[in-house]
Amino acid sequence: MVYINCMRLIAYILLITSLPALVNAEQPRDWQLGFQKSASQSMTDIVWFHDYMLLPIITAITAFVLFLVIYACIKFRASNNKIASQTSHNTIIEVIWTLVPCFILIVMAVPSFKVLYSQDKIPPADVTVKAIGYQWYWGYEYPDENIIFDSYMIEDKDLKANQPRLLSVDNEVVVPVNKNIKVLITANDVLHAWALPSFGVKRDAVPGRINETWFRADRTGTFYGQCSELCGIKHAFMPITVKVVTEEEYKKWLIEAKQKFAKEIIEKDFKIAKKIAKVKDLK
């Protein structure tokens, strides 16, 4: 009876601790161990490679080395070996410890090349987004839709319910689900990095150069990332928020965004503000 009650208690604790993982799967959570829940095939491949290829190999190597250390300490301790061995080398062992690591690397290389190739080979894009890193916020453009806007982190005092601290922004990137999203990444001042863990995406933003990556979200939701390249005093305050919606919701958002974030209107307002500033300087 005691055993059954203990098992029920353990099951209850595991259930409670797993609830945050179900609710906040798209963002980091307290006491998280491992990757965020995958939201793209690329990230699924990365998680599989880590969990079922790298982790078992690393665990086996660590256990084997620990066994050798303990074995050597016991078998070759000074009290048991009054006369020290004069052996300087062993050809068979040296051949083995050279070939076995090579074999392990080859086994690891095959699936890793597959994952890298799938990330670098960008399929025809359904939506193209340009991300520009600034100190310290992100600017976005939808070149095919004539949309441009900036995305700033929401301060703590302005946060609303269910908005995570240091991750929420005023203007989110909105993309449709199950569509190929091509992301062009650059920077205006210093090095930045556009990273979204749930999509398995991370690319450096380099001034004067455009890098590109892609993702295909397989479920709707709001996904969070951050700048992953040290870029100055407010590096920790450059969050990335991508909202994945249905095709119908995306079309509706496009209609609103083309009015709110139209590129020509923004450029026109900028020119007017520039002229006003010049007039004030003349006065």
Features:
elongated; single chain; 2 domains; alpha+beta; 283 residues; Immunoglobulin-like; 5 helices; Helix Hairpins
Structure report:
This protein has 283 residues and is α+β, with helices and mostly antiparallel strands. The chain has 2 domains: 41-120, Helix Hairpins, CATH 1.10.287.90; 127-271, Cupredoxins -  blue copper proteins (Immunoglobulin-like), CATH 2.60.40. Helix content is 43%, strand content 21%. It has 5 helices and 10 strands. It has helices at residues 2-23, 41-75, 91-120, 247-260, 263-282; strands at 127-134, 137-142, 147-151, 173-176, 181-187, 192-196, 201-205, 211-215, 221-227, 239-245. The strands form 2 sheets. A 5-stranded mixed beta sheet has the order 3-2-1-5-8, with no helix packed on it. A hairpin with a 4-residue loop joins β6 (192-196) and β7. The longest helix is centred in the N-terminal third of the chain and has 35 residues, at 41-75. The radius of gyration is 27 Å and the shape is elongated. Residues 1-25 have low confidence and may be disordered.
Quick structural summary:
With 283 residues, the protein is α+β, with helices and mostly antiparallel strands. It has five helices and ten strands, in the order αααββββββββββαα. The protein folds into two domains: 80 residues, Orthogonal Bundle (Helix Hairpins), CATH 1.10.287.90; 145 residues, Immunoglobulin-like.
Mind sketching the topology for me?
Blueprint (H helix, E strand, L loop, with lengths): L1 H22 L17 H35 L15 H30 L6 E8 L2 E6 L4 E5 L21 E4 L4 E7 L4 E5 L4 E5 L5 E5 L5 E7 L11 E7 L1 H14 L2 H20 L1
Parallel strand pairs: 1-5, 4-10
Antiparallel strand pairs: 1-2, 2-3, 5-8, 6-7, 6-9, 9-10
